[in-house]
């Protein structure tokens, strides 16, 4: 097949332009990205070879090799992993599959200054494309395990790339970077320096469980003496990383920075996690877990098809990504690794869903995450505030399904409140502030903060100085009906049924007054009830308003207007 030229997809082109013009200040991370991809490719090959013994791939010495050529100014990263077919190269390298990318690029355009830009870039992993931060041409040669023909992909990152078939290609992938000339003068960015390469690998990729080898530096040829020098030193390649699985090492042996790099590898996030959680389960069913709470929500967290769950390993062997059986839906933002001792390497998703041990792990992990959040509330309130801002909406989904952990979830939840416009409150704090004689926790749901704050239902509560929770997430409509109480106090909507705010004394006074009014207005009320009979059940006098002349109230058991909208949107 002849060489074919393709155009990058629009988003890919935009990202590449950003890489070429180096708007990201730390260029070293390109090597982390390439090593991370190679490591994934080796994981995939080992697994495929395990499941398919007709694959015919050599898995005896799986590794990553880095070679620098300071004369030609090229850097090569090679692996003998799964490789890619021609179609996969075009699919995976020419387009950006991540559905959040378009949104990200829009936000990037609107970013006001360079700090904002850098912040956004930092949240977004650009993976393979980061090669173009340091290279003005990238050549990728790859052959998929089990296939005979290889593929060469080449691009300068400027709009197009070429693809051609290659008869002879080693299995796996090698990526050759032609380094930008402007970096050659600059020691900080000399990516052909063995010292520099070693330092980057140590910093970002030490935990990678495959050997990352560096070929010995080729001595520069000096007037014919170079050949001799090369013959004298047939040095062995050096393994740069310690290859120790972080979750299997004792806690005080591992630095936060190392944990963070593992997080970036498995999450494809470029920012540090908010929290690292370790769990060591011993006994009949032994496993280790290393979990992370990200510092920001991914763009597609609420999209269909969002891949949740942690990575599953069995005795250090990678088994699968996105193992949803280990993490409840409402903790879908949690990333990490679970390594179990006593599972079969052939375990499938279907088996996992039914396995009792897995269900126990699931429960234990969920509890551990919730208790970590609980601790965070007192130990690191600012971190907790970030967590709640980013993931509160997701966590509240757990109030609907996870009965066992409902109190724990309520305990770590925060809500906007009339008590303090700017600071959300926990239910415990609300209960502490409840007025003498106040029996219930009051809330109002609605579409926006403004809508609930200005609702006529709020008037009586404002007048009496009674705190009301302002619930404006769509999920709030649903969980408030599922959760009967907190700390023995019922949750009550201020928009439903009779609300009784008066003290006994006030009631006595009001009672006689009300009776008089009731008689006075009886005619009007029954006339109005008649006139409006198609739309309302009853018209009655109310003490809940102080300013507005009238408001619509639901029966305690009716669905709220906002919930009606949700049900309608769901087609019910
Ligand atoms: P990500 O790793 O987040 O998926 P990348 O841009 O880093 O994004 O890589 C895109 C895809 O290209 C990978 O998901 C993988 O399928 C493929 N790929 C990249 N490098 C390799 C490699 N060395 N071997 C096999 N496949 C690779
Ligand atoms: Mg990658």
UniProtKB/TrEMBL annotation:
Start and end residues of each stretch annotated as B: 350-565
Keyword ATP-binding belongs to the record: yes
Homology family: Belongs to the heat shock protein 90 family.
Function (record text): Molecular chaperone. Has ATPase activity.
Stored InterPro entries: HATPase_C_sf, HATPase_dom, Heat_shock_protein_90_CS, HSP90_C, Hsp90_fam, Hsp90_N, Ribosomal_Su5_D2-typ_SF
Key words, A-Z: ATP-binding, Chaperone, Cytoplasm, Nucleotide-binding, Stress response
Region annotation (A) ranges: 1-349
Pfam family, one: HATPase_c_3
Subcellular location: Cytoplasm
Domain Histidine kinase/HSP90-like ATPase residues, every copy: 26-183
Lineage: Bacteria, Bacillati, Actinomycetota, Actinomycetes, Kitasatosporales
Name of the protein this chain belongs to: Chaperone protein HtpG
Top-rank taxon, per record: Bacteria
UniProt xrefs under CDD domains: HATPase_Hsp90-like
Known partners and oligomeric status: Homodimer.
Ranges of compositional bias, category Low complexity: 220-238
Region (Disordered): 219-238, 497-517
């Amino acid at each position: 097949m002849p060489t074919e030229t393709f155009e990058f997809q629009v988003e890919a082109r935009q990202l590449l332009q950003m890489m070429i013009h180096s708007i990201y200040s730390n260029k070293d991370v390109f090597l982390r990205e390439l090593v991370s991809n190679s490591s994934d490719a080796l994981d995939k090959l080992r697994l495929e070879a395990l499941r398919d013994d007709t694959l015919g791939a050599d898995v005896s010495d799986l590794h990553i090799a880095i070679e620098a050529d300071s004369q030609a100014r090229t850097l090569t990263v090679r692996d003998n992993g799964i490789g890619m077919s021609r179609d996969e190269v075009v699919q995976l390298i020419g387009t950006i599959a991540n559905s959040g990318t378009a949104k990200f690029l829009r936000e990037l355009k609107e970013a006001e200054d360079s700090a904002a830009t850098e912040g956004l870039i930092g949240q977004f992993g650009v993976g393979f494309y980061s090669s173009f931060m340091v290279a003005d041409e990238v050549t990728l040669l790859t052959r998929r395990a089990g296939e005979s023909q290889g593929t060469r992909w080449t691009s300068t990152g400027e709009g197009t790339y070429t693809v051609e078939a290659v008869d002879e290609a080693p299995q796996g992938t090698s990526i050759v970077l032609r380094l930008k000339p402007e970096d050659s003068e600059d020691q900080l960015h000399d990516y052909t320096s063995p010292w520099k390469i070693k330092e980057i690998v140590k910093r970002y990729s030490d935990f990678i469980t495959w050997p990352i080898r560096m070929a010995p530096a080729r001595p520069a040829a000096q007037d014919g003496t170079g050949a001799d020098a090369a013959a004298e030193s047939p040095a062995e390649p050096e393994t740069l990383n310690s290859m120790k699985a972080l979750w299997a090492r004792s806690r005080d042996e591992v630095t936060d920075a190392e944990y963070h790099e593992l997080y970036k590898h498995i999450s494809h996030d470029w920012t540090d996690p908010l929290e690292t959680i370790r769990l060591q389960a011993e006994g009949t069913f032994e496993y280790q877990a290393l979990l992370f709470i990200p510092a920001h929500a991914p763009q597609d967290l609420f999209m269909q098809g969002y891949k949740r769950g942690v990575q599953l390993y069995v005795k250090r062997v990678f088994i699968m990504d996105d193992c949803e059986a280990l993490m409840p839906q409402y903790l879908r933002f949690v990333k990490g690794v679970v390594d179990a001792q006593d599972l079969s390497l052939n375990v499938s998703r279907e088996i996992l869903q039914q396995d009792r041990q897995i269900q126990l792990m699931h429960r234990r992990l969920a509890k551990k995450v919730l208790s970590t959040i609980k601790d965070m509330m007192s130990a690191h309130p600012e971190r907790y505030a970030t967590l709640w801002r980013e993931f509160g909406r997701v966590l509240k989904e757990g109030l609907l399904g996870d009965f066992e952990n409902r109190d724990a979830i309520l305990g770590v939840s925060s809500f906007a409140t009339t008590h303090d416009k700017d600071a959300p409150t926990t239910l415990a704090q609300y209960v502490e502030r409840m007025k003498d004689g106040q029996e219930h926790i009051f809330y109002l749901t609605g579409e926006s903060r403004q809508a609930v704050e200005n609702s006529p239902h709020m008037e009586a509560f404002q007048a009496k100085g009674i705190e009301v929770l302002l619930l404006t997430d769509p999920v709030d409509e649903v969980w408030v009906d599922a959760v009967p109480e907190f700390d023995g106090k019922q949750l009550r909507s201020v928009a439903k049924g009779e609300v009784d705010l008066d003290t006994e004394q006030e009631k006595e006074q009001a009672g006689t007054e009300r009776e008089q009014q009731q008689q006075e207005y009886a005619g009007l009320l029954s006339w109005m009830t008649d006139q409006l009979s198609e739309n309302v059940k009853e018209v009655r006098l109310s003490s809940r308003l102080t300013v507005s002349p009238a408001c619509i109230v639901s029966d305690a058991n009716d669905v709220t207007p906002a919930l009606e909208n949700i049900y309608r949107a769901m087609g019910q």
